[in-house]
Design a protein that fits this description.
Helix content is about 85%, strand content about 0%. It has helices at about 1-20, 25-30, 35-40, 45-50, 50-80, 80-100, 110-120, 120-144. The protein starts with a helix and ends with a helix.
Length: about 140
């Protein structure tokens, strides 16, 4: 039972850190010394190591996780009771893990490893951002 919460906690932390992908301006401000690395072609090869199919699966999973994050962020922000906030955070974490687990071609471990790799590889960040932007319009009709 405890091992089930560890992926949820790591996924939640990973999702929160991935918010930098949604805001390139803050990502650039947070890592100004990595700007020069963006112009270098895959210096460490991480982007090449992650297949396009996995990046696409990651993008689909990310959009589902982000939708849950936004929904629960509003609920948590509207609640003043600390116990209720904690319960909502736990519920959100479980739903985020479930969203990744039910995404085709993506596991929680793969999701987290791509997320971790993206933190270190600006070329991978660019690939992930491109896939997320392409996947987002495809999911819009389903959300409305």
């Amino acid at each position: 039972m405890i091992t089930r919460y560890i992926p949820a906690a790591s996924l939640t932390a990973a999702v929160l850190s991935l918010m930098l992908l949604n805001n390139p301006a803050s990502a650039q401000q947070a890592t100004p010394d990595k700007q020069s690395a963006q112009t270098q072609p895959d210096s460490n090869g991480t982007a090449a190591a992650v297949s396009d199919q996995k990046i696409e699966a990651f993008a689909v999973a990310y959009l589902q996780v982000d939708k849950i994050r936004q929904e629960y962020s509003a609920k948590i922000g509207a609640t003043s009771d600390p116990t209720a906030k904690q319960q909502l955070q736990t519920e959100a974490s479980k739903q985020m893990v479930q969203a990744v687990q039910t995404s085709p071609g993506m596991s929680v471990d793969e999701y987290n490893s791509i997320l971790t790799a993206a933190k270190k590889d600006p070329a991978l960040v660019k690939k992930v951002q491109d896939k997320i932007q392409k996947a987002a319009p495809a999911q819009q009709p389903a959300q409305q």
